[in-house]
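User: Some background: our group keeps a shared notebook of sequences we're curious about, and every so often someone picks one and asks for a predicted structure to add to the entry. Today it's my turn. The entry only has the sequence so far, pasted here. Could you supply the structure so I can complete it?
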Amino acid sequence: MNSQLQRNLVFNTAGSLLFYVCQAVMNLLVTALAGVEANGLLATAMTIANVALSAASFGMRTFQVSDLRGQYADRTYLLSRYLTVALAWTGCMAFAFVNTYSAQQRWVIFLYAGYRLVESWSDVWHAYLQKAERMDIVGISFGVRGLLTAGTVVAGLLLTHDLIITLAVLLVLNAGYVLAVDIPLARRRADLKSREGGSVASLLWQCLPLAVYASINTSIGSVPRYFCERILGSVALNYFANVFLPVMLLQVAAVYLFVPFITTFARLWNDRDAAGWRKALRLGTLALAALWAAGAAGVALLGRWGLNLLYPSTPEILQYTGLLQPLVICAVLTVASTVLCNLLTIARAMGALIAGNLIGLAAALIASPLLIPALGLWGTALATMAGLGAQAVSLGIFLWMAGRRQFV
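Assistant: Of course. Here's the predicted structure to add to the notebook entry:
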């Protein structure tokens, strides 16, 4: 492993994890500094903004990074992102005005959605850096913006006691960092003058299956949670989500570790390097096995202690410590499915991508109403595992079939 790849792995993983953690604690900070009512406004905005972020990103990052032959110009990717971000932000506000939200809630939705859409806006610039194998810059960007997020929320609420002003400053600072740092660094590694290749409309049409797959993929893990809340109640769902939280860190870290390798896999695929591709897949499989072993050992040794440390005010959650083991498997399956989805995107196997995710969604829809009434939260974990397992297996089969066609 060369020094730049090592640097990419360290900085991208550390910075992205820091950004994820800082975003995850926003609810806790707002509740502590501004009260439950303000956090309720923020929670509503978060739900809406998550949908907007998915729509704006259009599932395009891996497609852009793996476009090594220049099917579309760098300028085309940039223009398409401006269009999708504008439409997503407009859609957020249309939703806010169609529903009977207060003026305060609408401002919170507008500003928080803008803050999250900075992530989608910066994503297209980060893809230029990733193609140039400078994921270390991307990781530093995420780390700085994560600290900006936590620091702004704390300072803003302490000084102004106003969530709207705090979110406005948060939006300006994050957008300012992208303008001042990310864009100048990425512009050096992009050819924004070239107009060769397909149009914006053609790019969006070709990537539409990726946007569809991204929505389906998110639903696979959401279906068991929906049935959990409907059947067992919101309190039970809260316990399930809280137990899953520390495992999510393992999952997120593993996904971020894989991101720098996307360019490597794309080159192996485009060069029809069968030996290199298969070797990379074997190493990836071994890494997943090591991830499961580390996660299983970690929760066995530290799981109960960790839950007690995280949730000292709700000791009853300790009775669900046993959930950690199946949830580690769910995390590993999520990582496997994410990797396989990226590899099928590199292979441009859009139909297989959607089919594999639909199979996972169908498995989750079938398993959830059968297992959750009988087994409670353990049924929720098993239904999640069933959906993710079916997804991973089907995607793996489709990738194997695509590989046989590519490496003849």
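Suggested note for the entry: The chain has a mean pLDDT of 89. Residues 206-406 form one domain.
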